[in-house]
């Protein structure tokens, strides 16, 4: 690659600069030169755009030092590249004050010790600059073509970063929106801190330093990353910025391609797992899928876990991803392999058991306990969810049965007032019967048939008969234990029991009737939590 910039030092190697002397600002010889001007006036502040090399005979100031100082200060302020003075006709020496000002500003002052043709110098340098521009355009096109070829073969974005580093010979850094940072070439810790300080500069003026250049990488309407180049040895040019822009575009294409491939793979995987959950996969297909994705496991059965998220909460992709990773980590430690699917506000986990069948439930309980009580879940990433775990299936082709029972567990849990109820389908017992009956019968009407006299009495007299009935049945008819549980004297309990006998019949503790009443009490609580019984009460009144 032809060097994309021209410095004062480069120009000093050209024709007509054989007999020169640099008397000040030697540290500024690496300043960029974009044009050459002949200046023979002292008021030039509004005539320059920056990076001009100035040629002068000194006629504008002659021997007037204050005019010379004013001109020099204007050149420095206008970011000129340097000042070349022909010694002889109008200027014989340079005052020490001028030299001191130039040295402080690292502004080069070059003396021609003999007469030189300014016209030929400007023509030569302008031709050099114009040819260099044409060459830069050609180099930029070649770089773009090489970049496009790389996009067809590379597997990782780091190869693009190495390519621009080798081409421009600068430090390359990419900062992703999740704060992940990649340095090419890699740097030691001390240098890393220095670069991070440069990258994190918030001040716009400092951020636009001539030694750093940045380009944002936007994907799908959001800021995905920022590509940054840093040079400690030279100022960056427009050409560097153009190369940076082309590289940023190439990276955006690469990232978009990777996201598309990942999304396509994810959609295909979700489709496959969904068919498995629907019972549409054969044993051979399941074994082949597991052999490809988890080749080292030996399945001993499986269960499905459904996590239904609170629909009133808004969760970011980061929250969901974090939850899935945390869920996976916990249950893998308990001897399970997992596959996850997102369905609207629900996460579905197919959980493959790798250890003893006899301990699967205790290990699941331990995992659920850790999940709900971990410090990380209690902080910012906590998701409010109902968890339902379906039946354990020894045959992986029956995973759809576990899925359906997990969904049923969620539906039952959503109607229970107590959060202490188990999230396992196998532990719901009577609630499963109530759920099925309520699907096919008007269970609230049956519950009212048994319990309405007691409920109406409590409403009318603000009584405690319903609570007394529940406690008495729970204590298996023990009056002493019931009184203790209700914190009442036994005489009060006797009075309430007499009232219950009046309302329910003297035989309400007869085994079959008692069983029916207990069942209806649980049903009533279930219906109350699902608001069905409340609606019936409103209709009745």
UniProtKB/TrEMBL annotation:
It holds the Pfam family HTH_30. InterPro entries: CdaR-like_regulators, PucR_C-HTH_dom, PucR_C-HTH_sf, PucR_dom. Gene3D superfamilies: PucR C-terminal helix-turn-helix domain. Residues 10-129 form the Purine catabolism PurC-like domain. Residues 465-519 form the PucR C-terminal helix-turn-helix domain. This is PucR family transcriptional regulator. It comes from Lederbergia citrea.
């Amino acid at each position: 690659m032809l060097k994309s910039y021209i410095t004062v030092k480069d120009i000093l190697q050209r024709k007509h600069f054989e007999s020169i002397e640099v008397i000040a600002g030697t540290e500024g010889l690496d300043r960029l030169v974009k044009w050459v001007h002949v200046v023979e006036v002292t008021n030039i502040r509004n005539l320059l755009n920056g990076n001009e090399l100035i040629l002068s005979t000194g006629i504008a100031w002659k021997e007037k030092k204050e005019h010379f100082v004013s001109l020099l200060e204007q050149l420095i302020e206008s970011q000129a590249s340097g000042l070349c003075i022909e010694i002889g006709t109008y200027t014989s020496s340079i005052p020490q004050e001028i030299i001191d000002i130039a040295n402080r500003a690292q502004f080069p002052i070059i003396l021609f010790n003999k007469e030189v043709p300014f016209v030929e110098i400007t023509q030569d340098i302008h031709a050099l600059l114009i040819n260099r521009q044409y060459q830069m355009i050609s180099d930029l096109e070649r770089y773009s073509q090489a970049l496009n070829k790389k996009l067809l073969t590379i597997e990782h974005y780091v190869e693009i970063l190495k390519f621009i580093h080798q081409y421009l010979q600068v430090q390359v850094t990419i900062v992703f929106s999740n704060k992940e940072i990649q340095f090419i070439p890699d740097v030691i810790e001390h240098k890393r801190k220095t670069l991070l300080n440069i990258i994190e500069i918030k001040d716009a003026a400092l951020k636009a330093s001539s030694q750093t250049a940045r380009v944002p990488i936007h994907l799908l309407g959001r800021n995905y990353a920022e590509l940054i180049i840093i040079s400690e040895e030279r100022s960056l040019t427009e050409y560097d910025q153009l190369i940076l822009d082309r590289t940023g575009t190439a990276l955006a294409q690469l990232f978009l391609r990777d996201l598309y491939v990942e999304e396509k793979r994810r959609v295909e995987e979700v489709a496959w797992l969904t068919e498995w959950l629907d019972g549409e996969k054969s044993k051979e297909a399941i074994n082949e899928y597991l052999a490809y994705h988890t080749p080292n496991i030996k399945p001993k059965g499986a269960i499905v876990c459904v996590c239904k998220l609170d629909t009133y909460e808004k969760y970011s992709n980061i929250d969901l991803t974090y939850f899935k990773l945390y869920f996976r980590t916990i249950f893998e430690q308990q001897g399970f392999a997992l596959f996850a699917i997102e369905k609207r506000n629900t996460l579905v986990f197919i959980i493959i058991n790798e250890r003893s069948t006899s301990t699967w439930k205790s290990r699941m309980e331990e995992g659920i306990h850790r999940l709900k009580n971990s410090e990380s879940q209690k902080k910012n990433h906590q998701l409010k969810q109902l968890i339902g775990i379906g039946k354990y299936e020894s045959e992986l082709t029956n995973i759809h049965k576990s899925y359906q029972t997990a969904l049923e567990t969620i539906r039952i849990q959503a109607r229970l007032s107590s959060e202490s109820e188990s999230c396992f389908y196998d532990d719901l017992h009577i609630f499963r019967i109530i759920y099925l009956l309520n699907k096919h019968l008007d269970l609230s009407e049956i519950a009212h048939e048994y319990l309405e006299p007691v409920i109406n009495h409590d409403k009318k007299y603000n009584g405690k008969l319903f609570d007394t009935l529940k406690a008495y049945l729970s204590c298996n008819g023990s009056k002493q234990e019931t009184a203790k549980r209700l914190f009442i004297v036994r005489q009060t309990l006797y009075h309430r029991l007499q009232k219950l006998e009046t309302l329910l019949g003297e035989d309400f503790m007869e085994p079959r009737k008692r069983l029916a009443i207990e069942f209806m009490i649980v049903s009533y609580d279930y219906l109350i939590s699902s608001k069905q019984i409340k609606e019936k009460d409103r209709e009745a009144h």
